[in-house]
Amino acid sequence: MPFLERAGAPRLHYELDDFTDPWKKAPCIMLQHGYARSTRFWRAWVPYLSRFYRVLRLDLRGLGESGRDFDLATGINLAAYLKDFTDLIDHLGIDSVHYCGESSAGTLGMAFAAECAPRVRTLSIISSPVAMSEEDKVSALAGHPDRVTALRKMGARGWLEASNAGRRFPADADPALLAWTLDEMGKSDVEVLVAMFRFVSNVDAAPYLPRIAAPVLAIYPAEGVITKDEHTDLLREKVRNLTLVRMTMQAHSLQLVAPATCAETVLHFMARHDG
């Protein structure tokens, strides 16, 4: 299990899948998971991408197998996340990546592409809010006054079960997928989720959008429950080189319920810009 060890910073777990021709220096795609998730949420994508691209997956600090040996009050912020990204690709000797983030990791990607432009070849975002809506901030509270209280009282699994219901998956989703997702997300440390919520609920990526030079692919549900038209309208208005794809479903977790469609769309988008 590969880790990036750093003095004074949490160790980062990552996976690198590479089935490209060894005599070619294949470009790299970085697949980044969102809130309460891990590298495992991208497993279904790897077979579609890894024949043509080196596929890099990172567990965000405090989640998955990455360390939480940092101050949660100060260690979850935009600068820390972007440094984790650049430290990892520096460690692997990679000049630039195609970045693909789902949900809040796509929001991070918007800032990454603006702040670290030379490191981002293309940006793909999937069901990513430009900023968290007030409606989403108070979702799944189950009678509790705020999300922090709900998380601490209900636990990670209890809160996530309430939050997933009717929002992230279609009504006819495979029950085994729902159970696996809940089991995986339920492993998350509650205090990490509290710290992450406090961060993501205050992030507004709109000021970064005009500064993104890389081509952007945005994949969104046609009638999203979490990411509504206000997000895609902002992208259309502010991103200079945008390809927008709307999928005919309401599910937020598109990368899980339609992995082949999403992965192949991203693959062809990257390839078009790589020649």
Write structural notes for this entry.
- The chain is an alpha/beta fold.
- The chain is 38% helix and 17% strand.
- It is built from ten helices and eight strands.
- α3 links the parallel β5 and β6.
- α5 (147-164) packs across α7 (190-200).
- The longest helix is centred in the middle third of the chain and has 18 residues, at 147-164.
- The model has no long low-confidence stretch (mean pLDDT 93).
Reconstruct the topology from this structure.
Elements: E1 3-6, E2 9-17, E3 28-32, H1 46-49, E4 54-58, H2 78-91, E5 97-102, H3 104-115, E6 120-126, H4 134-137, H5 147-164, H6 175-185, H7 190-200, E7 216-221, H8 229-238, E8 242-247, H9 254-257, H10 259-274
Parallel strand pairs: 3-4, 3-5, 5-6, 6-7, 7-8
Antiparallel strand pairs: 1-2, 2-4
